[in-house]
Every structure is written in structure tokens, then in C-alpha cells.
Design brief:
Largest sheet: 3 strands, antiparallel
Number of domains: 2
Shape: elongated
Strand content: 5-15%
Order of helices and strands: HEHHEEHHHH
Distance between the termini: 54 Å
Number of helices: 7
Oligomer: single chain
Helix content: 55-70%
Strand order of the largest sheet: 1-3-2
Length: 190
Amino acid sequence: MSRENKSQYAILGILADAPRSGYEIKKLCDQFLSFFWNENYGNIYPALKKMEAEGLVTMERMKQDGSPDKKVYTITEAGHTALKDWLRRPPDFRILREELLLQIFFGQTIGAAPFREKIERQKKWCQSIIDRLNEVREYVETEIAPERQEDNLPYWLATLRFGLRFYQMESDWCDEAQAILLELAGNEND
């Protein structure tokens, strides 16, 4: 049995708000979903083509001056039904695949010292995500919330809070791992 492609549900969720082009879908994924869900053009366009063939979306070509036609996708009633059915199902459990943790697990092969820079880099990356999530939260709370009074605002904020807590936890773990590895590096030099 093949794994179900969840990209279609991310796309259907975005299209449930408004018709959009593949480019606009990717832009929204990058802006609002990327801290917990990653989509690339290599997933988006094949999924749109497949969903169009399955009747989950329709596509309309929009003329543009000096550019190729823009393909705008709209969710169909069948697409809404598929999205709602998926939203009612329990999610698959995730299996964490974190290369840094895999490297640290086998770190005894080269010793603790080389990992300190990797962990510091990871901590900086986590902080950049936290900063970005705070910017998104501020934007949602000050620009979107007052203007649109979205019913889905609490759901958006719940995912933002998850992201903030998750990356803060990872940042805190980096501090703990640094302390452990600093002690190990000291013992290796004894």
C-alpha cells in the first residue's frame, strides 16, 4: 500500500480560503506553513494536476499582459468533501528524522568537540525560526485579525504557539547538549 500524499490536503486547505495559482499556493506555504509543513513546486504542481483529474479542483487560465497565462485553481465541492474527510481522520504519527541527533548519537566515533559548532548553528537556526514566528504572530494579530475577523484565527494562533514552543524547546535542548558536550570535551582532554 502506498503512502498517501498529504500535499493535496495542504493545497485544498489553502484553496478553501480563495482560488489561487500554484505560485500563490507556494508563497502562502512559505509564509505561514513552513515551520511545520513544507511544500515545494515539485509537490504542488503534480498534486494540482492530479486533483484536477480527480475533480477536487478546477483550473481556469487567466490572461496576463506580456506573460504566459496564469493558471488559477478553485476547490470544488468534491474537494471540500475530501478536505473535511481528511480533517476528521486522526493524523499519522510522525517519525522524527533529525540528522544532527543521528550524528550526535554516533558521536563517540569522533569525540564531542566537533559537535559544539553544529549545535550552536542549530540554536541560531531555531532562534531565527522563533523570530520569524513572532513576526507572523504579530502580523496575524494586528493585520489579519482586526480586518477579517476570521473564524479560523484561533486555529492559526494554535499552530503558531506550537511552533514557538517547539523551537524554544529545541533551542533549550541545544543549551543542555552544549553543556554535556563541553564536559565530555574536557574529559576527552584529560
